[in-house]
Design brief:
Elements: H1 15-23, H2 31-40, H3 43-71, H4 74-77, E1 83-86, E2 92-96, H5 100-110, H6 122-132, H7 138-156, H8 163-174, E3 182-185, E4 201-205, E5 216-227, E6 233-240, E7 250-255, E8 270-275, E9 286-298, H9 305-342, E10 344-345, E11 348-349, H10 354-383, H11 392-396, H12 401-435, H13 448-458, H14 465-478, H15 485-492, H16 498-513, H17 522-550, H18 559-568, H19 572-578
Parallel strand pairs: 3-6, 4-6
Antiparallel strand pairs: 1-2, 4-5, 5-9, 6-7, 7-9, 8-9, 10-11
Helix pairs in contact: 1-9, 1-18, 2-10, 3-5, 3-6, 3-19, 5-7, 6-9, 7-8, 7-9, 9-10, 9-12, 9-13, 10-12, 10-17, 12-13, 12-14, 12-17, 15-16, 16-17
The structure holds flavin-adenine dinucleotide.
Flavin-adenine dinucleotide is lined by residues 184-187, 191-193, 225-227, 278, 281, 286, 457, 460-461, 464, 466-467, 470.
Length: 579
């Protein structure tokens, strides 16, 4: 019988749990994150970046977290579905009003100059993004991912860009006049997977338009999924008319407002027709828009647009999906495990029930391997100086076979990681929610409902699972002459035991040697089923290997230890939250 039996003034309190959760510093208190940073960062950068991370973590863990929590309140989420089309004087303005907390968060995160080479190195950029993704505020982190893609694409053609496009690069990357936001508009109403079927047209027009611009490309047509609609510049796909490659998709960068027009709220000849009402990433405005002659600047050769968009812009977003989810999972798992140690049922902490112990170990292992895998994959991207190759054709031009294979592995790893982490994340978060019982569903109790909703989106955008599985299969057929499926597995899983590699190689080679995934017959159906399973196995083994290589020996989380530790600390956090 409880010693509170018959007590009408029920003294139960969550305060100790909330205290520990709210005092946890995402970098300073997380030995696992620190171990990853220590393993992967080059020795000559480690001390400096470690210090920068500590300082940033003091802000992210408290101030940014508080801003993100406010932005996710229902009344604030609704704002991203509402748009003011006209002002009082009949001017079309298509004004989006977001909650001020998201706007503050966005400004402060963009002011970190993440893509500015004067302020961040590839590694400091990555680990700062990993830290920021722990609060997973999609309203801000989606434009961060898109800006990253836009910068990389523009940088690839830095020496060939028209002056206007070059200026855009300097606004996005170098913060000339304040760091600006990027977005990417590819999907159309008839389909997002099939980008070559895009219908938006680009027309080169010599005569001067009503905006005073002449001799420029202009866009016409609809884009149906335009996230980060608040951004300043979008990378947009369109088919250029009256050129030899008119059936092929080209890449353009398109200002949301022409110079001087943002303050006047005159958009660059397009209308925002509607804001979507979404299950997840609700703090992010996603729009349906119509271009009516928007001024656009080509990026790269017109006929290479598709390869550049998929190979660079979407690949980077896929890296972001995975690293973002992996970072978020560390936080989710930590908070769920701490709650299970705090909460009691039948007189004991719920973490002590064998059914729970297995679940705790499972989500913990999954989160740790996702993070270790994300660091390992990203280290390959940094190995190649953060330059992605646009497509297999460009890859084939690399003379050095060892390098060509390594680049191919990175290309496939990015897709594999995206589909597997996006598949794992909703399941892990759902399990973590269950640790809280009914409280896990309460939006104002914990941010897991938001993170769960957002995680469902990750599977769909930037290439749905099926599309990427089909793409990987096709890629292997195209490189069969110089990279066999067997060799790929052996190279990718270096360090893994021979038996595991042997089993996987047999299954993987069988799938890859099947000529197509598009035929509807018994054999293909079976191959597709196997491929769904094997792709997950393959990447999980890669993640497990990354975790083994980390050789992490830190102390397991302990609620009571953290409670004692934080009670001793000065109340510096509260000061930061109030800033
Ligand atoms: C919240 C949100 C925000 C978004 N923001 C943006 C944005 O900012 N910019 C942008 O350009 N897009 C954006 N998108 C669009 C997203 O990229 C597309 O939804 C996605 O590419 C899929 O396109 P679709 O929705 O037209 O699906 P479809 O292309 O119609 O696909 C439907 C189904 O068919 C399957 N399928 C398609 N091809 C194959 C194949 N070869 N083999 C097997 N199965 C196949 C797909 O896997 C999917 O399950 C956003 C989407 C969401 C949900």
């Amino acid at each position: 019988m409880s010693d509170q039996e018959g007590n009408r003034d029920n003294p139960y309190s969550f305060d100790d749990y909330i205290f520990v959760k709210n005092n946890f510093n995402y970098y300073r208190d997380d030995e696992f994150f620190q171990a990853l940073v220590k393993k992967y960062l080059p020795f000559n950068e480690l001390e400096k970046i470690d210090l920068e991370l500590q300082e940033l973590s003091d802000i992210v863990s408290f101030r940014f977290k508080a801003l993100a929590d406010e932005a996710t309140r229902l009344e604030n989420r609704v704002k991203c579905t509402l748009i003011q089309h006209y002002d009082a004087y009949n001017h079309r303005i298509d004004k989006i009003k977001r909650c001020s907390e998201t706007e503050t968060l966005e400004r402060e995160i963009f002011d970190l100059g993440l893509f500015d080479p004067k302020r961040n190195s590839p590694w400091s950029r990555f680990v700062k993004m990993f830290l920021l993704y722990q609060i997973g505020e999609s309203g801000v982190m989606c434009p961060i991912a898109c800006t990253h893609g836009a910068v990389e694409l523009l940088q690839k053609y830095e020496n060939e860009l028209e002056p206007e496009a070059y200026n855009i690069l300097t606004y996005l990357r170098d913060g000339i006049g304040g760091y600006k936001l990027g977005s990417q508009f590819v999907s159309e109403i008839q389909g997002g997977s099939d980008v070559p079927a895009n219908l938006v047209e680009a027309v080169f027009e010599e005569e001067e338009g009503s905006d005073g611009v002449s001799n420029c490309w202009r866009l016409y047509g609809q884009k149906y999924f335009c996230s980060a609609m608040q951004s300043d510049y979008a990378v947009v796909t369109a088919k250029p008319k009256n050129v030899s490659s008119s059936t092929r998709v080209a890449a353009f960068v398109v200002p949301a407002w022409l110079p001087g027009n943002k303050e006047k709220e005159i958009r660059n000849s397009y209308t925002i027709d509607r804001l979507k009402q979404k299950l997840g990433t609700a703090e992010l405005p996603t729009a349906e828009i119509t271009y009516n002659g928007a001024v656009a600047y080509p990026v790269g050769p017109l006929e290479k647009g598709l390869a550049d968009i998929v190979g660079i812009v979407l690949s980077l977003s896929r890296l972001h999906v995975a690293l973002g989810m992996a970072a978020g999972l560390l936080k989710v798992t930590r908070e769920a495990i701490l709650y299970s140690q705090f909460r009691t049922a039948f007189g004991v902490p719920v973490s002590s029930f064998p059914l729970m112990i297995n679940q705790i170990n499972d989500i913990n292992h999954n989160a740790m391997r996702s993070a270790a895998g994300a660091f390992k994959v990203y280290s390959e991207y940094i190995h190649f100086n953060e330059e992605l190759i646009s497509g297999i054709r460009e890859l084939q031009k690399i003379e050095d076979l060892t390098e060509r294979k390594r680049r191919f592995r990175l290309r496939e790893l990015i897709m594999l990681q995206k589909i597997v982490v996006a598949d794992d994340a909703p399941a892990i978060i759902r399990k973590a929610i269950s640790f809280f019982g009914g409280h896990g569903i309460m939006e104002d109790f914990i941010d897991f409902p938001r993170l769960h909703r957002d995680s469902l989106i990750m599977e769909l955008w930037e290439g749905p699972r099926n599309v990427l599985l089909a793409q990987i299969h096709r890629d292997f057929q195209r490189v069969a002459e110089w990279y066999s499926a067997d060799d790929f597995i052996k190279d990718l899983l270096e360090g893994v035991d021979q038996k595991t590699i042997g089993n996987l190689t047999t299954e993987f080679s069988k799938i890859i040697s099947h000529d197509t995934l598009l035929r509807n017959d018994e054999e293909t159906l079976e191959i597709c089923r196997d491929w769904e399973r094997i792709s997950n196995n393959l990447f999980h083994i890669y993640q497990d290997q990354a975790l083994i290589e980390l050789n992490y020996k830190g102390k397991p989380l302990k609620f009571s230890r953290l409670l004692r530790k934080f009670k001793k600390k000065p109340e510096e956090k509260e000061i930061l939250v109030e800033l």
